[in-house]
Amino acid sequence: MRNAKLYRYQLPMDSGVVLRDKKLSQRDGWIIELSEDNKTAYGEVAPLPGFSRETVEQAGVQAQEQLELWVAKRPIDFDALLPSVAFGLSVAECELKGELPKEGNYFSAPLCSGDPDALIPALDALPTEKKVAKIKVGLYEPIRDGMLVNLFLESIPTLSLRLDANRAWTPEKAQKFAKYINPSYRQRIEFLEEPCEKPEQSFAFAMDSGIAIAWDETLQNAVKEADFSLSNLTGAKVIVIKPTLIGSIERCKALVEDAKRLAINVVISSSIESSLGLNQLARLAKWLTPDEVPGLDTIKLFGQQLEVPWPDCDLPVARLHDQPVVWQS
After folding, report:
1. Cα(125)–Cα(133) distance, rounded to whole angstroms?
2. What is the DSSP track for 128-152?
3. Is 136 among the catalytic positions?
Protein backbone atom coordinates (compact mmCIF):
# COMPACT_ATOMS: atom_id res chain seq x y z
CA MET A 1 0.00 0.00 0.00
CA ARG A 2 1.19 3.49 -0.85
CA ASN A 3 0.85 6.63 1.24
CA ALA A 4 2.04 10.17 0.63
CA LYS A 5 2.14 13.55 2.33
CA LEU A 6 2.86 17.06 1.15
CA TYR A 7 4.37 19.48 3.66
CA ARG A 8 4.71 23.23 3.28
CA TYR A 9 7.77 24.85 4.81
CA GLN A 10 8.99 28.39 5.37
CA LEU A 11 12.54 28.97 6.59
CA PRO A 12 14.13 32.29 7.56
CA MET A 13 17.02 33.52 5.45
CA ASP A 14 20.06 35.55 6.36
CA SER A 15 19.17 39.25 6.23
CA GLY A 16 21.63 39.94 3.42
CA VAL A 17 20.30 37.51 0.79
CA VAL A 18 19.35 39.33 -2.43
CA LEU A 19 18.25 37.60 -5.64
CA ARG A 20 18.05 39.68 -8.79
CA ASP A 21 17.72 42.92 -6.83
CA LYS A 22 15.01 41.52 -4.54
CA LYS A 23 15.56 40.63 -0.90
CA LEU A 24 14.77 37.02 -0.01
CA SER A 25 13.67 37.11 3.63
CA GLN A 26 12.37 33.53 3.75
CA ARG A 27 12.59 30.37 1.66
CA ASP A 28 9.27 28.78 0.76
CA GLY A 29 8.84 25.27 -0.54
CA TRP A 30 7.26 21.86 -0.27
CA ILE A 31 8.46 18.50 1.00
CA ILE A 32 7.11 15.34 -0.59
CA GLU A 33 6.89 12.23 1.60
CA LEU A 34 6.43 8.84 -0.05
CA SER A 35 5.77 5.65 1.92
CA GLU A 36 5.60 2.07 0.65
CA ASP A 37 6.54 -1.35 2.06
CA ASN A 38 7.56 0.16 5.40
CA LYS A 39 9.96 2.53 3.71
CA THR A 40 9.72 6.33 3.67
CA ALA A 41 11.51 8.83 1.45
CA TYR A 42 11.48 12.57 0.87
CA GLY A 43 11.94 15.05 -1.94
CA GLU A 44 12.02 18.84 -1.99
CA VAL A 45 10.02 21.00 -4.39
CA ALA A 46 11.32 24.57 -4.10
CA PRO A 47 11.08 26.90 -7.10
CA LEU A 48 13.66 29.67 -6.81
CA PRO A 49 12.11 33.17 -7.07
CA GLY A 50 13.46 35.08 -10.04
CA PHE A 51 14.96 31.96 -11.62
CA SER A 52 12.28 29.23 -11.80
CA ARG A 53 9.56 29.60 -14.40
CA GLU A 54 6.96 28.34 -11.92
CA THR A 55 5.81 29.89 -8.65
CA VAL A 56 5.76 28.10 -5.31
CA GLU A 57 1.95 27.99 -5.48
CA GLN A 58 1.91 26.47 -8.97
CA ALA A 59 4.45 23.86 -7.90
CA GLY A 60 2.38 22.95 -4.85
CA VAL A 61 -0.76 22.41 -6.90
CA GLN A 62 1.04 20.18 -9.38
CA ALA A 63 2.89 18.28 -6.65
CA GLN A 64 -0.42 17.35 -5.03
CA GLU A 65 -1.87 16.22 -8.37
CA GLN A 66 1.15 14.00 -9.00
CA LEU A 67 1.07 12.52 -5.51
CA GLU A 68 -2.53 11.47 -6.12
CA LEU A 69 -1.35 9.66 -9.27
CA TRP A 70 1.56 8.07 -7.40
CA VAL A 71 -0.65 6.74 -4.59
CA ALA A 72 -3.01 5.27 -7.21
CA LYS A 73 0.00 3.67 -8.98
CA ARG A 74 -0.77 5.52 -12.16
CA PRO A 75 2.07 6.50 -14.55
CA ILE A 76 3.74 9.90 -14.17
CA ASP A 77 5.15 11.78 -17.15
CA PHE A 78 8.13 13.51 -15.56
CA ASP A 79 9.04 15.32 -18.79
CA ALA A 80 5.67 17.09 -18.71
CA LEU A 81 6.09 18.38 -15.16
CA LEU A 82 7.37 21.69 -13.85
CA PRO A 83 11.13 21.33 -13.23
CA SER A 84 10.98 21.69 -9.45
CA VAL A 85 8.14 19.15 -9.17
CA ALA A 86 9.87 16.71 -11.50
CA PHE A 87 13.05 16.84 -9.48
CA GLY A 88 11.44 16.66 -6.04
CA LEU A 89 9.19 13.72 -6.94
CA SER A 90 11.89 11.85 -8.86
CA VAL A 91 14.46 12.16 -6.06
CA ALA A 92 11.88 10.89 -3.55
CA GLU A 93 11.14 7.89 -5.79
CA CYS A 94 14.84 7.28 -6.27
CA GLU A 95 15.38 7.39 -2.51
CA LEU A 96 12.45 5.05 -1.89
CA LYS A 97 13.83 2.48 -4.34
CA GLY A 98 17.27 2.65 -2.71
CA GLU A 99 18.85 4.00 -5.90
CA LEU A 100 20.20 7.25 -4.46
CA PRO A 101 23.61 6.45 -2.93
CA LYS A 102 24.09 7.14 0.76
CA GLU A 103 27.51 8.74 0.31
CA GLY A 104 27.60 12.41 -0.65
CA ASN A 105 30.08 15.07 -1.72
CA TYR A 106 29.67 17.75 0.93
CA PHE A 107 32.67 19.84 -0.12
CA SER A 108 32.33 23.04 -2.09
CA ALA A 109 34.79 25.36 -3.74
CA PRO A 110 35.56 28.01 -1.09
CA LEU A 111 34.70 31.61 -1.85
CA CYS A 112 37.70 33.92 -2.22
CA SER A 113 37.75 37.32 -0.57
CA GLY A 114 40.81 39.55 -0.76
CA ASP A 115 43.52 37.55 1.00
CA PRO A 116 45.16 34.57 -0.77
CA ASP A 117 46.78 33.39 2.49
CA ALA A 118 43.38 33.04 4.15
CA LEU A 119 42.29 30.64 1.38
CA ILE A 120 45.02 28.03 1.97
CA PRO A 121 43.34 26.17 4.90
CA ALA A 122 40.05 25.85 2.98
CA LEU A 123 41.88 24.49 -0.06
CA ASP A 124 43.78 21.98 2.05
CA ALA A 125 40.46 20.68 3.41
CA LEU A 126 39.20 19.71 -0.06
CA PRO A 127 39.19 15.93 -0.58
CA THR A 128 40.48 16.10 -4.16
CA GLU A 129 43.95 16.81 -5.47
CA LYS A 130 42.52 19.64 -7.53
CA LYS A 131 42.45 22.84 -5.50
CA VAL A 132 39.59 24.96 -6.74
CA ALA A 133 38.01 28.12 -5.36
CA LYS A 134 35.51 30.63 -6.67
CA ILE A 135 35.20 34.37 -6.99
CA LYS A 136 32.07 36.38 -7.66
CA VAL A 137 32.83 38.92 -10.38
CA GLY A 138 30.69 41.56 -12.03
CA LEU A 139 29.76 43.34 -8.80
CA TYR A 140 32.50 45.95 -9.13
CA GLU A 141 34.57 47.41 -11.94
CA PRO A 142 35.95 44.74 -14.30
CA ILE A 143 39.47 46.09 -13.90
CA ARG A 144 39.27 45.48 -10.14
CA ASP A 145 37.92 41.97 -10.74
CA GLY A 146 40.70 41.20 -13.19
CA MET A 147 43.40 42.39 -10.81
CA LEU A 148 41.92 40.33 -7.95
CA VAL A 149 41.69 37.15 -10.02
CA ASN A 150 45.22 37.63 -11.29
CA LEU A 151 46.48 38.13 -7.71
CA PHE A 152 45.03 34.83 -6.53
CA LEU A 153 46.36 32.89 -9.51
CA GLU A 154 49.78 34.46 -9.09
CA SER A 155 49.92 33.89 -5.32
CA ILE A 156 48.79 30.22 -5.35
CA PRO A 157 50.39 28.39 -8.30
CA THR A 158 48.29 25.21 -7.76
CA LEU A 159 44.97 27.09 -7.68
CA SER A 160 42.16 26.81 -10.21
CA LEU A 161 39.32 29.32 -10.13
CA ARG A 162 35.63 29.27 -10.91
CA LEU A 163 34.21 32.70 -11.68
CA ASP A 164 30.58 33.74 -11.86
CA ALA A 165 29.58 37.01 -13.53
CA ASN A 166 25.79 36.44 -13.68
CA ARG A 167 25.67 38.06 -17.14
CA ALA A 168 26.80 41.37 -15.62
CA TRP A 169 29.22 42.53 -18.31
CA THR A 170 28.95 44.13 -21.69
CA PRO A 171 31.46 42.73 -24.21
CA GLU A 172 33.61 45.81 -23.58
CA LYS A 173 33.68 45.25 -19.82
CA ALA A 174 34.47 41.56 -20.30
CA GLN A 175 37.43 42.54 -22.46
CA LYS A 176 38.67 44.94 -19.77
CA PHE A 177 38.52 42.10 -17.26
CA ALA A 178 40.51 39.75 -19.49
CA LYS A 179 43.16 42.40 -20.12
CA TYR A 180 44.26 42.20 -16.50
CA ILE A 181 44.62 38.39 -16.46
CA ASN A 182 48.11 37.18 -17.30
CA PRO A 183 47.72 35.03 -20.46
CA SER A 184 49.80 32.28 -18.84
CA TYR A 185 47.24 32.06 -15.99
CA ARG A 186 44.09 31.89 -18.09
CA GLN A 187 44.07 28.11 -18.43
CA ARG A 188 43.76 27.91 -14.65
CA ILE A 189 40.39 29.63 -14.79
CA GLU A 190 38.28 26.48 -14.76
CA PHE A 191 35.36 28.47 -16.07
CA LEU A 192 33.77 31.90 -16.11
CA GLU A 193 30.04 31.43 -15.77
CA GLU A 194 27.86 33.50 -18.13
CA PRO A 195 30.10 36.59 -18.46
CA CYS A 196 27.81 38.57 -20.79
CA GLU A 197 24.10 39.23 -21.15
CA LYS A 198 23.78 37.34 -24.45
CA PRO A 199 25.18 33.82 -25.01
CA GLU A 200 26.72 34.81 -28.33
CA GLN A 201 28.63 37.61 -26.58
CA SER A 202 29.94 35.16 -23.97
CA PHE A 203 30.98 32.74 -26.72
CA ALA A 204 32.84 35.50 -28.57
CA PHE A 205 34.59 36.49 -25.34
CA ALA A 206 35.78 32.90 -24.83
CA MET A 207 37.12 32.71 -28.36
CA ASP A 208 38.95 36.05 -28.07
CA SER A 209 40.36 35.64 -24.55
CA GLY A 210 41.03 31.93 -24.29
CA ILE A 211 39.14 31.90 -20.96
CA ALA A 212 36.75 28.97 -20.66
CA ILE A 213 33.08 29.75 -20.04
CA ALA A 214 30.23 27.79 -18.47
CA TRP A 215 26.54 27.74 -19.32
CA ASP A 216 24.05 28.09 -16.46
CA GLU A 217 21.06 30.29 -17.39
CA THR A 218 21.72 29.49 -21.05
CA LEU A 219 21.36 25.77 -20.31
CA GLN A 220 18.18 26.33 -18.29
CA ASN A 221 16.62 28.25 -21.16
CA ALA A 222 17.72 25.75 -23.78
CA VAL A 223 16.34 22.63 -22.08
CA LYS A 224 12.84 24.11 -22.26
CA GLU A 225 12.86 23.67 -26.04
CA ALA A 226 11.25 20.53 -27.44
CA ASP A 227 14.16 19.92 -29.84
CA PHE A 228 16.89 20.57 -27.27
CA SER A 229 20.22 18.88 -27.84
CA LEU A 230 23.31 19.60 -25.79
CA SER A 231 25.41 19.21 -28.94
CA ASN A 232 23.76 22.39 -30.27
CA LEU A 233 24.74 24.36 -27.16
CA THR A 234 28.29 25.07 -28.24
CA GLY A 235 31.03 27.24 -26.85
CA ALA A 236 31.33 26.16 -23.21
CA LYS A 237 33.69 23.69 -21.55
CA VAL A 238 31.39 23.33 -18.54
CA ILE A 239 27.66 23.16 -17.86
CA VAL A 240 26.18 23.94 -14.45
CA ILE A 241 23.23 21.69 -13.63
CA LYS A 242 20.79 22.98 -11.02
CA PRO A 243 18.30 20.10 -10.79
CA THR A 244 15.49 22.20 -9.29
CA LEU A 245 15.66 24.34 -12.45
CA ILE A 246 16.31 21.48 -14.89
CA GLY A 247 13.92 18.65 -13.95
CA SER A 248 13.93 14.99 -13.00
CA ILE A 249 16.93 12.92 -11.97
CA GLU A 250 16.63 11.02 -15.26
CA ARG A 251 16.88 14.26 -17.18
CA CYS A 252 19.90 15.33 -15.15
CA LYS A 253 21.54 11.94 -15.70
CA ALA A 254 20.95 12.19 -19.44
CA LEU A 255 22.55 15.65 -19.49
CA VAL A 256 25.60 14.35 -17.63
CA GLU A 257 25.95 11.43 -20.04
CA ASP A 258 25.60 13.72 -23.08
CA ALA A 259 28.18 16.09 -21.61
CA LYS A 260 30.67 13.25 -21.14
CA ARG A 261 30.30 12.23 -24.78
CA LEU A 262 30.93 15.83 -25.82
CA ALA A 263 33.91 16.26 -23.42
CA ILE A 264 32.03 18.90 -21.43
CA ASN A 265 32.53 18.98 -17.66
CA VAL A 266 29.51 19.10 -15.35
CA VAL A 267 29.07 20.82 -11.99
CA ILE A 268 26.00 20.02 -9.86
CA SER A 269 24.81 23.19 -8.15
CA SER A 270 22.23 24.36 -5.64
CA SER A 271 19.15 26.51 -6.16
CA ILE A 272 19.16 27.46 -2.46
CA GLU A 273 17.32 24.34 -1.30
CA SER A 274 16.84 23.61 2.40
CA SER A 275 19.36 21.38 4.19
CA LEU A 276 17.11 18.39 3.44
CA GLY A 277 17.28 18.97 -0.31
CA LEU A 278 20.90 20.07 -0.18
CA ASN A 279 21.96 16.79 1.38
CA GLN A 280 20.26 14.91 -1.47
CA LEU A 281 22.05 17.12 -4.00
CA ALA A 282 25.38 16.23 -2.35
CA ARG A 283 24.56 12.55 -2.79
CA LEU A 284 23.47 13.14 -6.38
CA ALA A 285 26.73 14.99 -7.10
CA LYS A 286 28.80 12.14 -5.67
CA TRP A 287 26.85 9.72 -7.85
CA LEU A 288 26.77 11.58 -11.16
CA THR A 289 29.90 13.75 -11.01
CA PRO A 290 32.28 12.00 -8.57
CA ASP A 291 35.38 13.82 -9.79
CA GLU A 292 33.97 17.34 -9.59
CA VAL A 293 33.61 19.67 -6.61
CA PRO A 294 29.90 20.65 -6.59
CA GLY A 295 28.47 24.10 -5.98
CA LEU A 296 26.50 23.44 -2.80
CA ASP A 297 27.70 26.14 -0.40
CA THR A 298 24.30 27.79 0.12
CA ILE A 299 23.38 26.58 3.61
CA LYS A 300 25.07 29.68 5.06
CA LEU A 301 22.35 31.79 3.42
CA PHE A 302 19.73 30.32 5.78
CA GLY A 303 18.80 31.15 9.32
CA GLN A 304 17.56 27.60 9.98
CA GLN A 305 17.95 24.06 8.68
CA LEU A 306 15.21 21.53 7.91
CA GLU A 307 15.09 17.96 9.31
CA VAL A 308 18.44 16.73 7.90
CA PRO A 309 21.42 18.79 9.12
CA TRP A 310 24.21 19.78 6.78
CA PRO A 311 27.57 18.45 8.03
CA ASP A 312 29.36 20.78 10.46
CA CYS A 313 26.57 23.37 10.29
CA ASP A 314 25.52 24.79 13.65
CA LEU A 315 22.28 26.45 12.51
CA PRO A 316 19.17 25.31 14.43
CA VAL A 317 17.18 22.49 12.82
CA ALA A 318 13.42 22.75 12.23
CA ARG A 319 11.66 19.39 12.29
CA LEU A 320 9.50 18.20 9.43
CA HIS A 321 6.73 17.03 11.76
CA ASP A 322 6.35 20.64 12.92
CA GLN A 323 5.63 21.85 9.37
CA PRO A 324 2.00 21.99 8.16
CA VAL A 325 0.73 19.01 6.16
CA VAL A 326 -1.36 20.42 3.33
CA TRP A 327 -2.31 17.07 1.78
CA GLN A 328 -2.03 13.39 2.65
CA SER A 329 -3.34 10.02 1.57
Report:
1. 12
2. SSSEEEEEE-SSS-HHHHHHHHHHH
3. yes
